Each structure stands twice: as structure tokens, then as C-alpha cells.
């Protein structure tokens, strides 16, 4: 199994060392194997995992949501289980977005009403 140090890992995955350390600290990535010289070594699976994290972030998943599904991509070779879980999260994001859009539409309508009321008042009182 090919192993690599963090510099090679970050170059291949297109992330920073800080990102790798952070992802390790929050449980998105397993810590690299440590050898007697203190260096951490990573495998090709870590590169794959980092790329999958990036794909899931692009879909709009939070790091917490990604932490809940990322392992499924490596334990379910069919991909069905992780895709179902991600689909559920995406449906929830869509529902949340629809609620926000509805609230924003109401806010816009309220603003328009206030503007019209102020303009009418000013028209009436500017003439006096």
C-alpha cells in the first residue's frame, strides 16, 4: 500500500495541511498513521475521502452532515446507502430553502407596502 506524507496528500487532494488537520480533529478524516519518527502517513483512501468531502460540500452539505455520511461511501460499495442519506439531506435543504424564500417574499411584500404608505403620506403632506 502506497503511503504519503501530508505534503503529498495535500498536493494531490488540493487542500491545505490546515484543512487536513481540522478534518482530523472533527472526525471527517482518520488521523494519519504515525511512525517512530513522528511523521504521519496517509493512504490513497485519504485522497479519495478528501475529494468526496469536497464533492459533498459542493452539494451544500455542512461538515457535520458530511461527517454523518462520509463513512458510508467507504463501507457500502454499492453506493446506495450513502446516496439515499445524501438525497434525504438534499430534500431537507430544499424544504428549508423554500421556507426561507417564502419568508423573504413576505418580507419583500411588507417592505413594498411600507414604501407605498410612506410615499402616499409624503405626497399628501408635501402639498401642504
Features:
128 residues; mainly alpha; three-stranded antiparallel sheet; 6 helices; 3 strands; elongated
Kindly, what is the distance between the CA atoms of the first and last residues, rounded to a whole number of angstroms?
87 Å
Q: Determine the strand fraction and express it as a percent band.
A: 5-15%
- The helicity comes to over 70%
Across the major sheet, the strand order is 1-3-2
Summed over residues and divided by their number, the pLDDT gives a mean of 93
Classify the secondary structure makeup into a structural class.
mainly alpha
Structure characterization notes:
By secondary structure, this protein is mainly alpha-helical. The chain is 70% helix and 6% strand. It has six helices and three strands; from the N terminus they run βααββαααα. Helix 1 (6-13) packs parallel to helix 3 (44-58). It is elongated.
Summarize the entry for a quick read.
By secondary structure, the chain is mainly alpha-helical.
Topology:
Layout: E1 3-4, H1 6-13, H2 17-25, E2 33-34, E3 40-43, H3 44-58, H4 63-69, H5 72-75, H6 80-126
Antiparallel strand pairs: 1-3, 2-3
Helix pairs in contact: 1-3
